[in-house]
Amino acid sequence: MKRRGARGFRALETEAEGTASSALFSPYSSVRIRCEKHAADTLSEALLCFGASSASMDEVDNSVDLDNTWITSIFTDDQDVNACISHAADSIGLSYTPKYEISTGKPCDWVANVQETFHPIEVTRGLWIIPKWRTPVDLQAINIILDPGLAFGTGEHPTTKLCLLLLHGLIRGGERLFDYGTGSGVLGIAAVKMGAAFSVGIDIDLQAIISARQNIALNEIDSNKMSVYLVRGEKGLPTRYESTSKNPEERTSANLELIDAKQSFDIVIANILLNPLLDLAEEIVSFARPGAVIGLSGILSEQVKQIKELYSMYLDNISISEIDGWACLHGTRKRIDDETMSQPKR
Ligand SMILES: C[S@@+](CC[C@H](N)C(=O)[O-])C[C@H]1O[C@@H](n2cnc3c(N)ncnc32)[C@H](O)[C@@H]1O
Asked: Tens of pLDDT along the chain (346 residues)?
């Protein structure tokens, strides 16, 4: 077997902020999922989105079987493993639920074990991602300090890199960024450190919001330069945006602020999977001002055609960049009267 590297992981967290260190030593389930090689990357990503705490891949060498790739995924005691796998498979359009076997692990500090695999990453010259427990390599560089143990967005995944490279090429100073599916907050933090005026991030996952807020603090970013909101909704379609404030009035005003901010952002970036990008097209675009750049990632190279077909009604000057079979599509938002605002059928 050839190890293809840790895909990512997220640690346990209580609703009250802060890592619940005792939970790191709780019992967990280790799940081995067998799938086809071409689906392994997206399935790993989807597993993390639907509640797995980690996902790493082992490819079976020289196997004649089509489903020759194993994903090892860790689930905490409170997760419904069967539902997570079935939702993850569904969200990436797999027509079958992959075969898998579950074993229960002894309590151990598995997060520390996975953390060992993360090292500083130089995304491009002068832009680094530094795991919280490592030392920056170049003090003059833009260093994004991340605790990747809490949500997706370690910086090691090609889709995150593609988005960071796009932002690096776009940000001149003073831009307003909207980050759809913020995860660890890595893109918003990078944008602000590169000179953006401010960044607003949203996510459907409370863990991600907690993690992003911790990473904002780790990077000492001013609260007026970056905020993150939880999206409430049905099947990922937003009905309401919430701050994590305990005060109901503040939660309501956060919703109105975000609705008011529609059509005002200079850059909108969304690194989510194919199906949410298709389902949420109108919503994602609605945050961009005319002429703004919209970047879409989380898609495989062969999925670009589908995204391009849909988004070309909203975007001009479309370009694609790719790393290791993953793609990022970006373009500039058309003037609103040029668009047919009704959502086309998929
Ligand atoms: C692939 S991660 C990207 C994280 C980070 N932005 C990055 O580039 O590394 C996708 C994130 O999108 C979030 N997400 C998935 N579906 C969403 C939806 N319908 N609305 C908002 N966020 C969503 C997930 O919870 C996850 O944190």
From this structure: 233 333 444 433 333 333 444 444 566 788 889 988 878 888 888 888 787 877 877 666 556 666 778 888 888 777 788 989 988 888 888 888 889 988 876 655 666 666 666 789 999 999 999 998 889 999 999 999 998 655 566 677 889 999 999 999 999 999 999 999 999 999 999 999 999 999 999 999 888 898 899 999 999 999 899 999 999 887 667 888 888 766 777 777 888 888 889 999 999 999 998 999 999 999 999 999 999 999 999 999 999 999 999 999 999 999 999 998 899 999 999 987 655 544 433 4
Among 44, 204, 232, name the best residue to mutate to test ligand 1's pocket (greatest count of ligand atoms within 8 A of Cβ).
204
Burial class (CB in 10 A: 0-12, 13-18, 19+), 32: middle
Q: Which helix (H) or strand (E) holds 143?
A: strand 142-146
Give the residue extent of every domain in the chain.
2-114, 121-338
Give pTM, 2 decimals. Answer: 0.75
Whether the domain at 2-114 and the domain at 121-338 fall into the same CATH topology: no
Domain boundaries 121-338, corresponding CATH code: 3.40.50.150
Give every strand in the sheet of 2-9, ordered side by side: 2-9, 54-59, 69-76, 28-35, 99-105
Q: How far apart are CA 72 and CA 28, in angstroms?
A: 13
Whether residue 163 has its Cβ less than 6 Å from ligand 1: yes
- Which ligand 1 atom is nearest residue 272's CA? 10
* Nearest-angstrom CA–CA distance, 256 and 236: 19
Cα of 61 from ligand 1 centre, angstroms: 32
Report the complex ipTM: 0.99
Domain 2-114 in CATH 3.30.70.120? The answer is yes
